[in-house]
Amino acid sequence: MSIDLLILIAAIVVSWLIFTWLVTVLKATVKTAILIALLVLGLQLLFGIGMTELWSPVQGFLSQTWEKGQEMLAPFLGK
Predict the structure, then answer these.
(1) Contact 65/71 with Cβ under 8 angstroms?
(2) What is the pLDDT at residue 70?
(3) Cβ distance 54 to 43 under 8 Å?
(4) Could you tell me the CA-to-CA distances from 51 to 29, 48, 70 in Å, in that order?
């Protein structure tokens, strides 16, 4: 067997592994997105909680986390 054939077989195996990993990640992402959409729809239909009421606390948490992270990393970043 020549070296070119070995490289071709290795490339096919690596391509297949990457493809199957990508399909797995895509399936998990779609399942998560559907679950979140159903959760938000259920909250809206059952309790009248809309996206604004849900997103506002999340946005506050993310901004606080970002600020704390910047404060913690400031000595390392020279700021």
Answers:
(1) no
(2) 92
(3) yes
(4) 20, 10, 28
E-strand ranges in 1-79 read: none
In which residue are the tokens 């404060």 written? 71
8 Å CB contact between 44 and 50: yes
Q: Quick one: tokens of 29?
A: 């992402």
Report residue 42 as tokens: 């259920």
Number of residues written out for the chain: 79
What pLDDT was estimated at residue 79? 65
Q: From first to last of its 79 residues, what are the pLDDT tens digits of the chain?
A: 799 999 999 999 999 999 999 999 999 999 999 999 999 999 999 999 988 898 999 999 999 999 999 999 988 888 6
Report helix, strand and coil shares of the chain as percent, to nearest 5: 90, 0, 10
